[in-house]
Amino acid sequence: MLAEIKGLNEECGVFGIWGHPEAAQITYYGLHSLQHRGQEGTGIVVTDGDKLKGVKGEGLVTEVFSQDAIQELKGTSAIGHVRYATAGGGGYENVQPLLFQSQNGGLALCHNGNLTNATALKYQLEAQGSIFQTSSDTEVLAHLIKRGGVSSHKERVKNALSMVKGAYAFLIMTENEMMVAVDPNGLRPLSLGKIGDAYVIASETCAFDIVGAEFVRDVLPGELLVIDDNGFRSEMFAMASNISMCAMEYVYFSRPDSNINGINVHTARKNLGKQLAVEVPIEADVVTGVPDSSISVAIGYAEATGIPYEMGLIKNKYVGRTFIQPSQSLREQGVKMKLSPVRGVVEGKRVVMVDDSIVRGTTSRRIVTMLKEAGATEVHVIISSPPIKNPCFYGIDTSTKEELIASDRSVEEIREIIGADTLTFLSPKGMIDAIGREEEGETRGLCLACFTGKYPTEIYPSTLHPYEKV
Predict the structure, then answer these.
(1) Which CATH number goes with the domain that contains 118?
(2) What domain range is 371 assigned to?
(3) Is the pTM of this model over 0.70?
(4) Engineering a disulfide at 285: which of 27, 112, 317, 349 sits with its beta carbon 3.0 to 4.6 angstroms away?
């Protein structure tokens, strides 16, 4: 039963700054710009060179951090996190950054992604005496670092990173340094910037624009950056292999004003729309996009076809988070609260409705119904990605095939379920070409696992749903 009214949920966002007198305030604004990546919890940890101090809580950035809370976070360096719960579930204890204190000093870390071998590592660590305080996969790395023997902190971090598998962009901070790491496949975006002499790290470059930072470069797959008062140093903790940036970063997750590996997300989405115009010629009167991620695609489609683009759907940005509602009927009402059709635009018109993906199908069905109730004579749904047929084990909340409408249904069956007059998905090659990455190979350095079932890393049995097989 495809019950829940929701599509893909964002991963998480990380932000860090080293060497700035207003570290906490800048981190607050950086996290605010990354709020689209996670709305369930947020936190900031600062260092003043002597000790680590943190504030975190469940909710949005503006809900968790009052002016007084920010003023208490005194320090010149900080890391922060916005979370959407995937591995480990929700709860205050799982909100990041995770902060640990020991006789040898403090350790704070935060993470975007998902460790596919976390459960196996956790069993091993517990057998060796570790006691876990959270159900988050991120805590596994902290235990591996602390159990790394008498070698230097950097070597312990490198050894720990060599043991974890999956997708990750890590920020790790002690009292006197910050370490930054991206998995060898480059599944998660992470960029380095500067504000004056201070170094800044963020999941998306849109955060640099908000805080006034200058983009320096992307953090490379398999790279470890060590940042302290002397600047930053780089070395590879693992060889980059099978580069596989998540395709949904371009299609859905990232803000349109961000750049990923030199490609502007808005431009990539417009190109997706133009490619859809080549693959899906439709006779219609108006094109509209489902806010927000599909608007750029709809503009590109309209430009290429000559069909006028109109704001046929309006998003209410001030509605509460509807996932807290206790019943299915109230969750369905939540879709109407979040999106409203513009009758004056769609009434009596043949409408092309552009969306980025169909996951469970329930939201698409409601939007098609709303457009027809508002007087649309035809609703043609075009999707700027291929059908999502396979679960993601890298930090997106689609962990079982049962919840994916396309896993065992044809396009025609999905069309009937959502009530559209026609339904078309973008081809995999069309999506790859439109995004336009310069990597070589058939996938051009994109992870397409949710579309093709070809995972760029090994998937461990403990990663899977108990009844799921890959």
Answers:
(1) 3.60.20.10
(2) 265-437
(3) yes
(4) 349
